[in-house]
Amino acid sequence: MCIELTTPLSEEAVASLNVGDMIYLSGEIFCGRDAVLPKLSAMSQQEIRTLLGKDLQGGVMFHTAVSPAGVGPTSSNKLEIESSIAPLSAKGIKLHLGKGALHSDTVRALQQHNAVYAVIPPVTALLGQQTLAQTVAAFPELGMEALHLLKVDRYPAIIAAAKGRSIYE
Amino acid sequence: MKPTKEQITELVSRTLIAAGSTFREDKKQAYRTAIARETNPQAKWVMETILANADAAERNQSPLCDDSGIPHTVLEIGEDVAVTGAMLDAIREGIATGLRKLPGRPMGIMGDDTQRIDQSGGLDPDSAGVAPAPFLIRKTKENVLRLHIMMFGGGPAIRAKTYRVFHKHNVDVVLNEIIDWSKEAVAQLGCSPCTLAVGVGRSHFEATAMMLEALADGCYSQQSEMERRITEAVNASNIGALGLHGDTSVLATFMKVGPQRASGVRVVCVRPCCCFEPRIATVDLLQNDSCQ
After folding, report:
1. B9, B290 contact by CB (below 8 A)
2. Which of B44, B120, B242, B273 to mutate to test the interface with A (most CBs of A within 10 A)?
3. CA distance linking residue B26 with residue A69, whole number of Å
């Protein structure tokens, strides 16, 4: 049975998730990858609020570009992406969405901030049908690697790191 | 009858869209078989989702994956068929048209040699800015001008390997090396279950060309003893779909062994094609066949 989650994610909802849970994710989610995530990670909470008009609390970060071809996960264990997971969790991101195994340090950092990591199949055609709206949220000069905000309906994913455990163990 | 430039462009465009959006029937059946025997519920769910994605992409004629890939081609030329430079240009134009219609991800890098390496020249906003790889041309006895288009993603390119193997006059040595490389590559890839593409040649170029031909000729329902052995050995490693553990890490292996030299060395190319690849479609540019 799949768990239905809607953003913003509450502390309780995230705390109830376990490795191996299959989820459907709905609501607004951020999208970013190698180019934009280090920029966002380096910003203070106040700078992020000024940039976006809101904070990241309860948010989801999908590791993807947003191009005319659609969306799909890139490898979350690429240096610039994985190194963003701890600082963005500290700033309120509750669920990081991508693919591939994370290092143990990152899994521990997720636990420390009551955040989780989920893998999403690279099913671009299905995700396109389940994407209701998309806008550029910040850094438009980065094109398809800009920070995007999507409104999505029931994106499928599997919890791959939670409570200090990883599905790849 | 020699096709016109317009006919070639249209056929190639349609073939590229089919390659980027469609699973062939033997691949669909390979997934159905893998889903039926999968014992890990998460891995089964992932493969069901991948198959549902293929149905949606085929229906919409839209990309299977947002990394829509770099076009790679194998052109088969029949005994008495003449190919001109203008026909090759028409094929390139058809590829560009297909990339715009699919649409492919605009990921061509602009600029001079230095800028294309460090990506400082910026991205070409045109999907057709993704130039195809050099054409691989081979002769066939059939009276055809057959074009295979394959769309290669970045993940498998990162994990692929072409290197020498000292065979010690024992095929097991080479196969075991291929299996070891494949286990490591599939585990790192993320987007499994894979199709392993293997070429064995006398040089890096030849091994890679054999790998490409293996994909052009490969069929999920027809596996040689060596192909089956590689697949079974990698599947025993329990990597599974998306690396979540499970019974199917590899759907099949497509392998081609080229001519070899009198030497203790074989050059082996292994590409761990992702769950969507080879993303292939084929057309006979003389017969006006529909894409398959």
Report:
1. no
2. B242
3. 25
Query: How high is the pLDDT of residue B292?
Result: 55
Q: Distance (Å) from the C-alpha of residue B3 to the closest C-alpha of chain A?
A: 31
pLDDT < 50 positions in chain A: none
Residue from the list B56, B102, B244 with its beta carbon closest to the beta carbon of A126: B56
Question: Rounded to a whole number, what is the distance in Å from the CA of B92 to chain A's nearest CA?
Answer: 20
Q: Å from A30 to nearest chain B CA?
A: 17
Q: Collect all residues of chain A within an 8 Å Cβ-Cβ radius of residue B125.
A: 143
- Note the pLDDT of residue B9: 98
B123 contact A CB<8A:
yes
Instruction: Check CB contact under 8 Å for B243 and A101.
Output: yes
The whole-angstrom separation of Cα A113 and Cα A163 is 10
Contacts of A156 in chain B (CB under 8 A): 45, 49
Q: What are phi and psi of B287, to 5 degrees?
A: -90, -10
Q: A118-137 burial by CB neighbour count: b if 16+ within 10 A, else e?
A: bbbbbbbbbbbebbeeeebb
Q: Does B40 touch chain A (CB under 8 A)?
A: no
What are B162's two structure tokens?
A: 């072409």
Contact of B45 with chain A, judged by CB distance below 8 Å, is answered with yes
Torsion of CA B174, B175, B176, B178, to 10 degrees: 90
Look up residue A101 and give its DSSP letter.
P
Which of the residues in chain B have pLDDT under 70?
A: 288-292
Q: Do A64 and B66 touch (CB under 8 A)?
A: yes
pTM assigned to the model: 0.94
Q: For tokens 């074009």, name the residue.
A: B147
Quick count: other Cβ atoms within 10 Å of Cβ A13?
16
Instruction: Please give the C-alpha separations between residue A13 and each of A5, A99, A112, A158, B137, in angstroms, as whole numbers.
Output: 8, 22, 16, 15, 57
Nearest to B212 by CA among B144, B271, B268: B271
CA distance B201 to B220: 23
Which conformational region is residue A80 in: left (phi greater than 0), alpha (psi within -120 to 50 degrees), or beta? alpha
Please, what is the end-to-end C-alpha distance for chain A in angstroms? 23
With CA atoms as reference, report the closest residue to A120 among B242, B32, B275: B242
Å between B62 CA and nearest CA of chain A = 7
Q: Is some CB atom of chain A closer than 8 A to the CB atom of B68?
A: yes
- Looking at residue B2, what is its pLDDT? 84
Integer Cα distance of A166 and A9 in angstroms? 20
